Amino acid sequence: MGIESVKKGYRIGIETVWKGYGKGMERVWKGYTRSMGKVSKPYGKGKPGSAIR
């Protein structure tokens, strides 16, 4: 009985979350790629302790 309403609400929620997620991911991804450039340089050199994390 409640499954139909849950599906509808679930779909609506996913759409709104996905839109917000996409917007947030763009922002996060830009910052992530920027920071990854900084992070990957010492990472690539291979500090023994840092790789375990």
Structural account:
This protein is mainly alpha-helical. The mean pLDDT is 62.
Beta fraction: under 5%
Largest sheet: none
Secondary-structure element pattern, one letter each: HH
Task: Tell me the structural class.
Answer: mainly alpha
Low-pLDDT runs of 5+ residues are: none
Rg, Cα atoms, Å:
19 Å
Number of helices: 2
Instruction: Give the helix level as a range of percent.
Output: over 70%
The shape is rod-shaped
Mean pLDDT: 62
Number of beta-strand segments? 0
Distance between the termini: 47 Å
Task: Please give a quick description of this structure.
This protein has 53 residues and is mainly α. Helices cover 91% and strands 0% of the residues.
Tag the structure with descriptive keywords.
single chain; 53 residues; mainly alpha; 2 helices; 91% helix
Topology:
Layout: H1 3-45, H2 48-52
